[in-house]
Amino acid sequence: MAETAQPVLIEHPEPGVALLRLNRPERSNAMDMDAVAQLHQAIESISSDDAVRVIVLTGSGNAFCAGLDLKAMLDEEGELRPSAAGGYDLQERYEGTIRRLRASNKTVIAAVNGAAVGFGFALTLGADIRIASRAAAFHVGAVRIGLTAGECGISYHLPRMVGASRAFEIMLTGRPIEAAEAERIGLVARVVKPEQLLPESMDCAHQVLANSPFSTRHTKRVMWANLNAGSLEAALELENRAQVLGLQNADFAQAVRAFVEK
Fold it and tell me: Which one of 186, 209, 232 terminates a domain?
């Protein structure tokens, strides 16, 4: 199969929503360095677009993202000759995607349509909301090929989402997490039929858009920050500051008037 020209596609299916699609189905959406660079540009472009408030991230074909394109790492002779400097540069490029998703003031919904492996798994964890198809599966991947399971934020995000004990077991064994288990352990918000994945994700986007831009932007910021809060007092202080800012917001004043006037 000929390789797709554009590894990352941006669509605007509805006002306020950008559909960001990983588009290398012939490689199960595995991402090489060029594709990752385009993904960075796409996230930055969407994040700077004030007309967009929700990003729906998904994959083309039957996979979400098979992770790092290992084939692209081989030299002209088909050999892998990594250097420490080159390896670190590679890691920083890939994990930079997670930083961008987390830093974006848009709500990021991962619509996980198939296998999410390694870097692909990390992408789903870097999203704010995960909705999975019944065909989805999550794999740490790297621990089975002589690397560590901790890459691109997985060792940070996974224990916070499913608990340290379960995360240790998943990361040390490298076993896949099928969609039903992902829902049961709280890794994803819900699991739907494959044909319902994008409609359900768009419905979730509509519910986000029904709230004010201030509310959703600062809720995302507070939630992620307070996952790292050193104490309840620190978490409460951050919440207090965000709420005080919200009290000055025109959307809040309008909501109060509407409530009083029924």
Answer: 209
**CATH number, residue 59:** 3.90.226.10
Kindly tell me the burial class for residue 76, based on how many C-beta atoms sit within 10 Å of its own C-beta (0-12, 13-18, 19 or more): exposed
Range of the domain at 250: 213-260
The span from the CA of 255 to the CA of 250, in Å, is 9
Report yes or no: 142 and 149 within 8 Å, Cβ to Cβ.
Answer: yes
Query: Is 55 within 8 Å of 109 (Cβ atoms)?
Result: yes
Count of domains forming the chain: 2
pTM of the shown model? 0.91
CB 137 within 8 A of CB 120: no
**160 and 36 both lie in a single domain:** yes
**Mean pLDDT (10-residue bins), the chain, 262 residues:** 75 98 96 96 97 98 93 68 79 93 97 97 98 98 88 95 97 97 98 98 98 96 93 86 81 75 76
